[in-house]
Amino acid sequence: MRAAAVLRMDQLRERLLINQFKRVLQQALLLSSLLASCTNQSSISARYLTAEKLWTEKKYEASVVEFDRIVKESPGSALGLQSLWRASLTRSLFLKDYSEALKGLQSFIEQSAQPNLILEAQKEIGEILFSKTQQHQAAIDHYEKLIQSGKYPEDEGVFLYRISRSYVSIGKIKKAILIQEEILKKLNDQELLLKTKMDLAQNWFTIGDVEKQAYSKAIDYYKQVSIETKGKNRRKFAEALFGMAIVLEEMDKPDEAIELYKMIESDYIVPNVVKIRIQKINDRTKRKKI
Q: To 5 degrees, how large is the angle CA 53–CA 89–CA 85?
C-alpha cells in the first residue's frame, strides 16, 4: 500500500514537472516583445539571445550564467525580470540548485507586477519545499500563507492537499485528517476528492491501534473510493479493496479479507502481493486449528 502511494506521488510529481517545462517554454514566446521594449539596451538584448540559445541547446549552467549577468546589469527591467524568472526555474528544474532557485523566485515575486507569473513562482516555491527538498514544515507554512492571502482561491484545494500530506510526513496524522475532512466539505474537484478519501482511509488505518473506531472509518473511506471507481478505474478500485482487506485482517476478519483479495487477484498492480497475503491468512488459520 505504501509502494502504491509512493507511485501515485511520483506520477503527480511527473505531471507537475511536465507542466513546469511547458510554462518555461511559453516564456520564450515573450522574447520578441521584450526585445522590442529594449532597443536602447542592445548589448543586454544580445546577451539575452545568447542565454536563450544556450538554454535551447540544453547548456543550462551556461545559460544561467548569462541570465544572472542580465539580472545584475539591468535589475528591475523587463529583460532583467524575465532573466531572473528563467534563471530561477532553470535552477529548479534542471540544475537542482534549490537554494538559489528559492532566492531567485522570492526576488522575482517581490519585483514582478505580473500576477500570473507570481502565482507560478509561488507554486514552484511550494514544489521545491514539498517535493524536491521535502521541507515539510516550510511547505506547510508556505501554502498556509498563500491560502490566507485569499489571492488564489482556485488553487486552494491543491494547497490544502499538500498541507495534509506534509503533516503526514512529519507525523501529525490527526492534524492531516482534520484538513482532509475539510477538503471533502469545501471542494468539488473529483480527482482531488478521490485522492483525499484514499489518504483518509490510509491515515485512519495508521492510527487504528490508538483511536476508537479508526478501523471502521478507514473501511468507510475505502468503500467510498471503491464505489466511485468501480467500472471506471480498475486500478483505483483494486487499491481500495486491497486497503480494505488489510484493515479487515487487522480487525481479525480473515474470511472477509480473503474474499476481497480474491476479487482483485488479477487486477492489483502487484498480483503476487495479493497471493502472498492470502497464503499468510491461510497459514495463520491452519496454525490456530492445530
A: 80
> What are the structural domain ranges in the chain?
14-133, 214-290
Q: What are the pLDDT digits (tens) for 239-258? A: 999 999 999 999 999 999 99
Q: Which fold has domain 214-290?
A: 1.25.40
The Cβ of residue 278 has, within 10 Å, a number of other Cβ atoms equal to: 17
Query: What are residue 189's phi and psi, to 5 degrees?
Result: -70, 110
C-alpha 207: how far from chain center: 23
pLDDT digits (tens, 9 = 90+) for 147-187: 999 999 999 999 999 999 999 999 999 999 999 999 999 88
The CATH number corresponding to 14-133 among 3.40.50.150, 1.25.40.10, 3.40.50.20, 3.40.50.10490 equals 1.25.40.10
pTM score above 0.85 = no
CA dihedral 64, 67, 71, 76 (to 10 degrees): -120
Q: CB of 82 within 8 A of CB of 33? A: no
